[in-house]
Recover the amino acids of this structure.
């Protein structure tokens, strides 16, 4: 049995046993620890959690969205990916153009009030249809600002120029694999006030040794039940894709988290997850006819042998 999932399970247990109770911007409340690291050997299998189902196609479409440099949720909705909806929806309901029922604090109210939850779902469906069908609406309310795709592919400089960080780092890996500057950053202090959600996975660095590519992510903040399994899978996938383009094998994915937290309203779900035994990890299959990271589409990235325990649903704190 792979050790990879136990790294994640041990993080859950560590927070439950040692975490500090903290308030947060969502008003939900968390148990939190500061400074935690996991090291996943990518040769053991693809590190997608098996003690609950994690929808791999959502991981893929979100990562490709970042790689494309896109910041509008329309691409995600076109791929039936709803994981960024709430932040764009918030932008709409706070605008002068919104005329529906009061949606303030919808994250918490939808959990506590059945009638409100029905209204919220109705308004969210209206919002999604408008994003998909109305170009002007999508442009105004679907764009999340300077989030990951923009920072990775179109970083703006003080001279008014732009830097394609991702493309540059891939070319450097090919040309100078021993470089200690194989870094992509998403954290820009200037852009924090205008981003829908300032980057949680703030910076990542690559390292080449023995013809294998490793990646370390520094994540300033991590929702350990909902977000961290996605983040592990996403950066493992990115490492595989870049290794493929650069003609390298894969090494480790090292995940360093600043504020690693469990939301209080996820405790029951975590207890359910911890009652389950991990299963064998799946295997990643890339379409090897695609030579560049920038050529991949959703159907080019698949898993074999993924047989997880059932989904465990939990609310997103917005």
């Amino acid at each position: 049995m792979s050790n990879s999932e136990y790294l994640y399970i041990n993080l859950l247990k560590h927070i439950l046993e040692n975490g500090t109770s903290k308030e947060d911007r969502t008003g939900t409340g968390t148990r939190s620890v500061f400074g935690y690291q996991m090291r996943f050997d990518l040769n053991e299998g693809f590190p997608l959690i098996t003690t609950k189902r994690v929808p791999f196609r959502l991981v893929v479409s979100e990562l490709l969205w970042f790689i494309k440099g896109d910041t509008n949720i329309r691409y995600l909705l076109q791929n039936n990916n709803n994981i960024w909806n709430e932040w764009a929806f918030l932008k709409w309901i706070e605008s002068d153009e919104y005329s529906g029922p009061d949606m303030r604090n919808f994250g918490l109210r939808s959990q506590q009030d059945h009638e409100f939850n029905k209204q919220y779902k109705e308004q969210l469906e209206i919002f999604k249809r408008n994003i998909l069908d109305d170009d002007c609406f999508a442009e105004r309310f679907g764009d999340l600002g300077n989030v990951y795709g923009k920072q990775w592919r179109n970083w703006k400089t003080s001279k008014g120029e732009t830097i394609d960080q991702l493309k540059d780092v891939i070319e450097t890996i090919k040309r100078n694999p021993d470089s200690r500057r194989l870094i992509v950053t998403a954290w820009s202090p200037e852009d924090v006030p205008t981003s829908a959600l300032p980057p949680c996975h703030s910076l990542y660095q690559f390292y080449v040794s023995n013809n294998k590519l490793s990646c370390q992510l520094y994540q300033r903040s991590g929702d350990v039940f909902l977000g961290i399994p996605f983040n592990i899978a996403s950066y493992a996938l990115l490492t595989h894709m870049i290794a493929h383009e650069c003609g390298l094998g894969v090494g480790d994915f090292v995940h360093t988290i600043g504020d690693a937290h469990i939301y209080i309203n996820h405790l029951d779900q975590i207890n359910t997850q911890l009652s389950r035994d991990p299963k064998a990890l799946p295997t990643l299959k890339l379409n090897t006819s695609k030579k560049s990271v920038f050529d991949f589409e959703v159907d080019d990235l698949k898993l074999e042998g993924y047989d997880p325990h059932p989904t465990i649903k939990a609310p997103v704190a917005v």
User: Anything to note?
Assistant: The two ends are 36 Å apart (CA to CA). The chain has a mean pLDDT of 94. The chain has two domains: 4-72+146-304, 85-143. The CA atoms of residues 213 and 250 lie 5 Å apart.
